[in-house]
C-alpha cells in the first residue's frame, strides 16, 4: 500500500472515501472511510450474536447500510475467524468478533477481515484499514471516490431478494420427540445446508409477557432470536404449543405455521367451518350437542352408512364407521355418554378405503401419495396399518389442496382428499404432517423443499425508497 500521490500511474487508486460492496453478506452498496491510520477494518453492526457449534462458531448480526435509515436492516451471518481486542482512536478497548468477507471496489474483489462493532450515528458504515489494502493500492487522502460510485437505490429494487446470499440461519424445531423421522430429517437437512437447527421441547418453554420486551425462556435461560420456527406440535399439547408459537410471533419470528392455523386445524368442527366458509368441497358434515337431535343428525348426512368422528381425533383414532342407522345411534349414544365432542359425516363409499395426501409447501403441492387402508379397514391412515404409493393428482385436486392450505394460512400442510363421484372432497387439513410416508412414497426431498421456502421467506425484502419508520 502506498499513501500519497507520488506515482504517476498507480495500479489501483483509492480516495479517503469510497463506495464498496460486500456481496457475500448481502450488502451491495455502502460508503466506506479509507483510514490508513487504522490497522483493522470494521463493519458497523448491531444485534451481534454468536451461535452454532463450538467447533465452527458463527455470528449473526444486522446492518443499517444507509446512514439515518433505520427502517432498512439487512440481516447477515458469517463464520467467526477470531475474537480480537481493538483499541479505538480515543483509547477505548473492545473485544470484537472477526469475520472474513469479500470486498468489491470498482472492478476489484478480494478477501478481507472485518471486526464487528456497534457505532450508532457514524457517517460511514464501514472503516477500511491498512491491513485490507494490497501493496499495489495507492490511497490519496485529498481525493474522494476515485473508483466508480454506487447507489443506495439497489436496496429498493425487486432484485435485492434475488441477490441476497444464502446466509446461515438459526432455526428452532418445536418438538417433544427429537428422534422421530420428521424431526430428525428437519435437523439433518438444515445442517446439511449450513444452518444451525435446534430442537426445543415445547412443554419446557415458558414465557415472559411484557409489552416492551416479550420473551421465551427454556430451562432457565432466555431463548435467542431465531430466524424461523418449524412447529411440530403434538395433539396432546396443542393449547400450550400454540401459546408458545404466539409468543414467537409476538417477537417477530417467522413461524412456518401460525398459531391460529394450527389451532383451527386441530378442532375438526372449526376446521370444517373454515372449509365451508371458503366454499371448499368436503363430505357433508353435521354436529349437535343435544341427544334429542340424533335422528336429525343422521338424516342431515344422508343416513347410514356414516362416519362418527371425535373432534380432536388424530391418526385415525376416534373415527368409527357406522354401517346401519342402529349402529350409528349406538355409537353416538356411547360418545355422548363419555361427554365427548364429535361430528357425523357422510361416508363416501366410492373412495373404497383410499385417500390422497397432498403435501403443500408455500403455495404449491410438492408431493402427493395415495393411502390405502389395511384389508377390511375403511381408514387409510398409515399408523393404522395402511400403505402409501405415489400418485398423479388432477388439476382440480391440486387446486383444492392449495386453497385449503391457504384457508388455514399454513405454509406446510398435509391436505387429505377423498375422490368422490362429484369431485375431490377435503377430509382433513393437517398442520404437522409427517414426512416419512410421503418422502418414501414420492421419492422427493420434502424437508429440502420446506427449507427452500424458509430461506425465501426470511431474506430481506426491498424497502420502498424514501420510506421511514414513524
TrEMBL record:
GO molecular function: ATP binding; metal ion binding; ribosomal S6-glutamic acid ligase activity
Record keywords: ATP-binding, Ligase, Magnesium, Manganese, Metal-binding, Nucleotide-binding, Protein biosynthesis
Presence of keyword Plastid: no
Listed cofactors: Mg(2+); Mn(2+)
Any Pfam family the entry gives: RimK
GO biological process, alphabetically ordered: SOS response; translation
Stored InterPro entries: Asp_endopeptidase, ATP-grasp, ATP-grasp_RimK-type, ATP_grasp_subdomain_1, Peptidase_aspartic_dom_sf, Rimk_N, Rp_bS6_RimK/Lys_biosynth_LsyX
Claim: Protein biosynthesis is one of the keywords in the record: yes
Occurrences of domain ATP-grasp (ranges): 272-455
Gene3D superfamilies linked to this entry: 3.40.50.20, Acid Proteases (2.40.70.10), ATP-grasp fold, A domain (3.30.1490.20), ATP-grasp fold, B domain (3.30.470.20)
GO cellular component terms, semicolon-separated: cytoplasm
NCBIfam families: PRK10446.1, rimK_fam
Family listed: In the C-terminal section; belongs to the RimK family.
Name the record gives this protein: Probable alpha-L-glutamate ligase
Organism: Rhodovulum euryhalinum
Amino acid at each position: 500500500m502506498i499513501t500519497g500521490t507520488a506515482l504517476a500511474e498507480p495500479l489501483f487508486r483509492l480516495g479517503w472515501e469510497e463506495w464498496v460492496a460486500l456481496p457475500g453478506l448481502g450488502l451491495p452498496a455502502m460508503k466506506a472511510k479509507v483510514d490508513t491510520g487504522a490497522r483493522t477494518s470494521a463493519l458497523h453492526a448491531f444485534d451481534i450474536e454468536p451461535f452454532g457449534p463450538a467447533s465452527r462458531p458463527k455470528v449473526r448480526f444486522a446492518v443499517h447500510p444507509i446512514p439515518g435509515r433505520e427502517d432498512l436492516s439487512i440481516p447477515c451471518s458469517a463464520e467467526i475467524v477470531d475474537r480480537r481486542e481493538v483499541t479505538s482512536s480515543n483509547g477505548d478497548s473492545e473485544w470484537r468478533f472477526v469475520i472474513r468477507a469479500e470486498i468489491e471496489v470498482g472492478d476489484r474483489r478480494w478477501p478481507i477481515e472485518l471486526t464487528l462493532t456497534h457505532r450508532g450515528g457514524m457517517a460511514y458504515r464501514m472503516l477500511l484499514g491498512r491491513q485490507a489494502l494490497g501493496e499495489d493500492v495507492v490511497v490519496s487522502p485529498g481525493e474522494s471516490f476515485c473508483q466508480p460510485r454506487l447507489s443506495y437505490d439497489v436496496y429498493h429494487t425487486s432484485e435485492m431478494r434475488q441477490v441476497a446470499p444464502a446466509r446461515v440461519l438459526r432455526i428452532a424445531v418445536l418438538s417433544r420427540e427429537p428422534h422421530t423421522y420428521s424431526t430428525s430429517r428437519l435437523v439433518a437437512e438444515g445442517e446439511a445446508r449450513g444452518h444451525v437447527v435446534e430442537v426445543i421441547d415445547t412443554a419446557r418453554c415458558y414465557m415472559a409477557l411484557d409489552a416492551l420486551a416479550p420473551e421465551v425462556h427454556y430451562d432457565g435461560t432466555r431463548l435467542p432470536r431465531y430466524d424461523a420456527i418449524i412447529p411440530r406440535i403434538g395433539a396432546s399439547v396443542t393449547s400450550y404449543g400454540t401459546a408458545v408459537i404466539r409468543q414467537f410471533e409476538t417477537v417477530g419470528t417467522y413461524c412456518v405455521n401460525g398459531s391460529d392455523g394450527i389451532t383451527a386445524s386441530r378442532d375438526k368442527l372449526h376446521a370444517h367451518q373454515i372449509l365451508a366458509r371458503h366454499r371448499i368441497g368436503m363430505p357433508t358434515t353435521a354436529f349437535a350437542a343435544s341427544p334429542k337431535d340424533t335422528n336429525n343428525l343422521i338424516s342431515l348426512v344422508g343416513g347410514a352408512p356414516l362416519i362418527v368422528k371425535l373432534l380432536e381425533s388424530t391418526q385415525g383414532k376416534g373415527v368409527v364407521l357406522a354401517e346401519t342407522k342402529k349402529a350409528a345411534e349406538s355409537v353416538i349414544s356411547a360418545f355422548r355418554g363419555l361427554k365427548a365432542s364429535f361430528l357425523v359425516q357422510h361416508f363416501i363409499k366410492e373412495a373404497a378405503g383410499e385417500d390422497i395426501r397432498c403435501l403443500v409447501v408455500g403455495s404449491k403441492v410438492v408431493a402427493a401419495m395415495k393411502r390405502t387402508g389395511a384389508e377390511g379397514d375403511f381408514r387409510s391412515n398409515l399408523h393404522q396399518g395402511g400403505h402409501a404409493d405415489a400418485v398423479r393428482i388432477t388439476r382440480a385436486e391440486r387446486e383444492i389442496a392449495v386453497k385449503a392450505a391457504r384457508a388455514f394460512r399454513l405454509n406446510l400442510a398435509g391436505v387429505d382428499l377423498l375422490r368422490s363421484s362429484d369431485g375431490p372432497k377435503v377430509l382433513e387439513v393437517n398442520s404437522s404432517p409427517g414426512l416419512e410416508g410421503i418422502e418414501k412414497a414420492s421419492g422427493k426431498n420434502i424437508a429440502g423443499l420446506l427449507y427452500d421456502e424458509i430461506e425465501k421467506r426470511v431474506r430481506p425484502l426491498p424497502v420502498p425508497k424514501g420510506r421511514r419508520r414513524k
